[in-house]
Every structure is written in structure tokens, then in C-alpha cells.
Amino acid sequence: MINKTCSFSLVFVAITYLIACNHESPPQQNSHTTSATPKVIAIKGGLVKTMWMGDIDGATILIKDGIISAVGKDVSIPNEAQTIDARGKIIIPGMIDSNTRIGLVEIDAVNMTVDADEGVDPITPHVSVVDAINPDSTLIPVNRIEGITTVIVAPGEGNLISGTSALINLDGRLVSDMIIKSPLAMHINLGNPPKDRYSSKNILQTRMGLVAKAREILTKAREYLNKKETYQKRTTEYKADLGKWQKTGGKNEKGEEKKKPDEPTPPDTDVKLEALLPVIKGELPVVIRAHRLDDIHTAIRLADEFKLKLIISHATEGYKIAKDIAERKIPVIIGPINTQPDNFETLGATYENAVILAKAGIKIAIQTNDSHNVRNLPFMAGLAVAYGLDREEALRAITINPAEIFSVADKVGSIRPGAYANLVICTDDPFQPRNRIEHVFIKGKDIELRSRQTELYEKYK
After folding, report:
1. CB 374 within 8 A of CB 368
2. What is the pLDDT of residues 387-418, one digit of tens each?
3. 51, 12, 33, 123: which is closest to 422 by C-alpha?
4. pLDDT tens profile 220-261
5. Which of 234, 384, 390, 419 lies in the 20 to 30 Å Cα band around 254?
6. Spatial strand order in the sheet of 166-169
7. What is the pTM for the complete model shown?
8. 117: closest CA among 59, 47, 196?
9. Are strands 90-93 and 148-153 parallel, antiparallel or unpaired?
10. Domains of the chain by range and CATH?
């Protein structure tokens, strides 16, 4: 009875919270309801950290229709441009969080608001986060006003193969307005979460079982690909033979009836294996969750065995194997930087992990692995700097590096002509607590720096 009462109370609180968010907040809270964005914007005089051609002090950034059209000191400003004076300010690309659940989670304790994980089957490669992202999530404005313009939304880590992620901008009326790239990557999770979830169901109980199951499904996907390729080859041969048969009127040289070629039978469709085909072909990268050294080794072995385009997530003990990771040119999405040695997977955690991996020549990106506190991304980068990571490398890890890792550097992660105008105007070093963010632009739209939390502050201050 007590459990039922608690559950009912949580549901009641969740409904009350969501209704309050929808009714107490004015409609302009979400930027997609603001007035029309000027077609041409010029941001003048700031220190521009381009992330592709160094820093330019006193530069002008010209934005046309949401795209950066020019950046430099000698940029001509059209008469119709809206001008923003950024003298004395620092302008950086919109920050990118490389692993979040934003839009999939509203209240962690209330299951009806959580769509991060499909916990009914350990193998769900056909699941896509795009089908669950809520563009009206109250967590979006909370996080983007801190300069995070772009995030990777990934499925949860409870399944062995949990599905595909998407890269989105944190602004848009519909999910389709927000998507930059989808599917972005397939996600495989080694270690405790899938083991813990499915051991009680007598499905997967050990790391041996997890890896055996991963090999089993990847082997089936490879065989499925071979069957489809064989079918396509036979179909091509069939069409050629059928053309010859039709050309001769279905008769041989003697005028005798010739058997019509048999049309090949396609293999039965398997939606899970279909979803894995781009992975097996090396077209879609695979992000493998691995904290411990042995799990990182396992991820590398799987990648070698199935020729996967590997990206390692977390890599808490990556510093122990940095040389091997660097030699294989495997990117790493590290973090959260403040991961503690508070369980058997993360006993080897150290704040110096980022600098060790970066000095080894590994391309790193930084993640919060969060939904509510994606806003802590600059703090995570700053913490890595405090423990030895070069400041510029830390900024790269939350801008251009993730863009390059996921092959979208032409769109986000830098301030260059042709890219989306995702920009942040700062009063100070973006990693410092004293910094204030004055403007956040997403695709050229000057986002209103207001959220549910700022509204509550104004109401009760």
C-alpha cells in the first residue's frame, strides 16, 4: 500500500510539474515561438575563436539566413544587417555535448517522463532516439542558455545494443527542425548496466555473456549482409538471363522451348539485422561504452574482428592503454570528467585521464552523460584544464573535435563560412565561473536567455 501511495504521489507531482511548466511560463520561453530572426546579422569587434584558423581579435562575423557567410577583420557589413557590438567579448562556437539524454528524460523518478532506454530486450539496434525526443522539454532552455547549442542524444546504457543516436541543435518546433544528423552512431554497452539489468532475468549474467551475445548478433548481421549481397548478385544475373530469354522468344537456337529463368528468392527481412548493416559495412560508427581497462580491450577486439568504425565512450581507465588507442586512431568521448572511483567499474578514475589521452595524440571529446545538467559541460572542460589539459584542447573537445569525430565539421563546431551560425558571446573565459553569457545563437537565431529556472528566480527573488 505504501509503494502504491508513493508511486501515485510521484505521478501526481510529475503531472502537476508538467502542467505548471506549460501554463505558468509565457509562450516565448521556447525560442521557436519568438519573433522572426533578422536575415543578416553582423557581430563586430570580439575575439573570435574560430577553431579552424586560430583566433582573430577585433573580427566581424557576418550571418546570413542562419549560416556564417564571412569571418575576419575586413568583412563588409550590408546596410540591412542587425549589428551586435562584441568589443571586449570572447566569441566561441556553440558548445557540443557528446553524450546526453536531453529530450528523452524530464523527471528521472517518474517513469512516464523517461524514454531513454528500452529495457525489454538486450538487443535493440532498430531503436532510434529520434522517435522519442521531446522538442518542448523544459530541460532544453535550461541547458542551452549556458552556451550548449548542440548535443548528441543517445539511448540509455542499459541494453547491450541500445540503438542509434542523433546530433541535434537545441532549438526547433519539431524534432525534424532540430536534427543535424541521424542516425549518428550505433551504441553498444559493455560492463555493468546491461549485466545488472538482465542478470535478474537470467538472460545475461557476466561480461563473457555480454560479449558472446554481441558477437552472435554481429555474426548474424554479417551473414545477413552476405545473403543480401548474394541475392542482389543473383537478381542482376536473373535480369540479364531474363532479357536474353525474352529476346529469343523463350526458345533456343533449335526453336525449342527454353525454360524461363528462375527468379531468386530474397532473404527474409530482419529489422534488427537491417539496422546493423551500416555498422557491418563500416558506414555507421559504433560508440562502445567501456570504463574498465578490460572492457576497453574487449571493445577494440570486437572492432578488429568485425571491422567496426569504433569510438570509445567514457574510457575511464583509458590512460592505462593510451598508446594502443592512439596507434589505432580511435577517438574517445571521455567523461564525465568528475567520474569518481565509487564502483567497481570506475575504481581507476582519475581527473588526469583527459590530459594523458590528449598528449598521447588521441582525439577526445567531452560528455556529461546527463539530461538535467548538460549545462555543466564547460565546468567539465574547465576541470580537465585544472588537471593539466591544455585550455585550447579543452575547448576543441567541446566544439570542433566532436564535429570531426562524427563527420559534421562543415556544419558545427567552428566559426567558418558555410557552417551553421551556432555561436556564444562570452564576457570572459568560458571555463571560468565569473563568465557571463550574453548571447547564444543557434542557426543565426538569437536565443532568449530564459528558462523555467530563471523565471522562478525572477518570481521569488
Report:
1. yes
2. 999 999 999 999 999 999 999 999 999 999 99
3. 51
4. 999 999 999 999 999 999 999 999 888 888 888 778 888 899
5. 234
6. 95-100, 148-153, 166-169, 179-181
7. 0.91
8. 196
9. unpaired
10. 25-93+413-461 (2.30.40.10), 95-252+261-408 (3.20.20.140)
